[in-house]
Amino acid sequence: MSKRIDAIDLNVYYGSFLAVEGVNINIEPRSVTAFIGPSGCGKTTFLRTINRMHEVLPGARAEGQLLLDGEDIYESGVDPVTVRTMIGMVFQRPNPFPTMSIRDNILAGYRLNGTRMSKSKADEIVERSLKGANLWKEVKDRLDKPGSGLSGGQQQRLCIARTIAVEPDVILMDEPCSALDPISTLAIEDLINELKDDYTVVIVTHNMQQAARVADKTAFFNIAGTGKPGKLIEYDETNVIFNNPANKQTEDYVSGRFG
Ligand SMILES: Nc1ncnc2c1ncn2[C@@H]1O[C@H](COP(=O)(O)OP(=O)(O)OP(=O)(O)O)[C@@H](O)[C@H]1O
């Protein structure tokens, strides 16, 4: 089930360094949102606070509220592991578990939680997840072969299938196509378009054409200089951000004047 995300006055730190300051953003369910901006403006840092992945680094923390359908995921008593099941993440480099079979990669989330299930239930999850990631036809005859034997683009779709398998509400993607060739990139972009029927999708991308192709809304982040915090400058319909932005910084960035 797709859920809404609201960040309220969110600050993100690495130790005493304030990396991202004062983010307020409302992300609708069943939509794709792109985060764009120059290197170091905090896109990845903010993305990782949405599923509490940020805090796995020693000294890293967030302040403020991050609501998932109105429930603050930073409230005391909330288990970050549960949060990461509800809000899945796909990384820059495809990272299937290399020695595990394709099938076991899909079931990894359940195995890690110690969930027991019948073979037919497991088969059903494997098929549903691979179909959901547009990979089923390519791998259905080799489910017991290692995930590392797939092409880069297939491995990334396997990682998306592994994320879908645990039925999350939100899928976060951190430059999911940056290690892929153009054909595999298009396959992932098509898939992102389909995923928004069921999930809230947030993607960090350096590729402005990609943001324009896949995102309903786009958030532009910027940084005033080295050592300064990144900030959300403008957030609007993708079309507005690229064709008629309200802020001069956004206009300079999308027209290629810096970054
Ligand atoms: N592990 C870390 N420890 C300390 N500071 C960090 C760490 N990771 C990132 N930073 C700093 O936080 C700020 C934001 O970095 P972040 O990687 O989120 O930016 P980004 O917009 O995603 O950049 P890029 O587009 O280059 O990936 C930068 O100043 C960066 O140096």
UniProtKB/TrEMBL annotation:
InterPro entries noted in UniProt: AAA+_ATPase, ABC_transporter-like_ATP-bd, ABC_transporter-like_CS, P-loop_NTPase, PstB-like
Record Pfam families: ABC_tran (PF00005)
Molecular function (Gene Ontology), one example: ATP binding
Name by which UniProt lists this protein: Phosphate ABC transporter ATP-binding protein PstB
Gene3D superfamilies per the UniProt record, alphabetical: P-loop containing nucleotide triphosphate hydrolases (3.40.50.300)
Domain (ABC transporter): residue spans on this chain: 5-248
Origin superkingdom: Bacteria
Keywords recorded for this protein, A-Z: ATP-binding, Nucleotide-binding, Translocase, Transport
UniProt organism field: Citricoccus muralis
